[in-house]
Amino acid sequence: MQNPLDLWPAFNLDAIRTPASILSEQASLIASKTHNLLKAEVRTRPVPASDNNGSGQFHVELLLIAPKLGDFTYRVCWTEHGLQPYPIKLVANQQEVIAQNEAEFLDWLGKTLGAAEVRQAVQLMYAQSELTPSTRWKQG
Q1: Is 45 helix (H, G, I), strand (E, B) or coil?
Q2: Cβ(103)–Cβ(88) below 8 Å
Q3: Angle 13-17-19 (CA atoms, 0-180°, nearest 5)?
Q4: Number of neighbours of residue 116 by Cβ within 10 angstroms
């Protein structure tokens, strides 16, 4: 049997860092910073072309999760971009900006992760997660 004719070129599939992969890198770091009491997830979903003026988009969210609090979830930020990752719409703390490239996205993400609102959310989720189920409802 003859092999099929392959007209596809070789692809460099490791060369592109997407916003979702950058957010995933950051998500992987939160557990060690919180003694494994918190975790983070990146959720990606397509936005159909019919919902976005005829061109498909990717909606990506970075979520903090406290498993000991019944998976209580805090959305740190979300992004939307087309097939090309940039420009990208960035939303956090009810503020929206557009990043034109990866450097602008990384700058925004660093500021977002270090923002007072996010630090406070991490600290409060951590503090409440430290309570074990046996001590959570004890009365003094």
Answers
A1: strand
A2: no
A3: 135
A4: 8
> What residues pair up with 64 in beta bridges, in sequence order?
40, 74
Task: Give, rounded to a whole angstrom, the gap between the first and last alpha carbons of the chain.
Answer: 80
Where on the phi/psi map is residue 18: left (φ > 0), alpha (ψ -120 to 50), or beta?
beta
How many beta carbons lie within 10 A of that of residue 39, not counting itself?
A: 16
Rounded Cα distance, 81 and 62, in Å: 15
How many other β-carbons are positioned within 10 Å of the β-carbon of residue 41? 15
Q: Which residues pair with 47 in a beta bridge?
A: 57
User: Which tens digit of pLDDT belongs to each residue from 85-135?
Assistant: 999 999 999 999 999 999 999 999 999 999 999 999 999 999 999 885 634
Burial class (CB in 10 A: 0-12, 13-18, 19+), 88: buried
Global confidence as pTM: 0.84
Strand residue runs (E) in 67-104: 72-81, 88-92, 95-99
Separation CA 99–CA 85 (nearest Å): 10
Q: Is 70 helix (H, G, I), strand (E, B) or coil?
A: coil
Give mean pLDDT, residues 69-85: 96
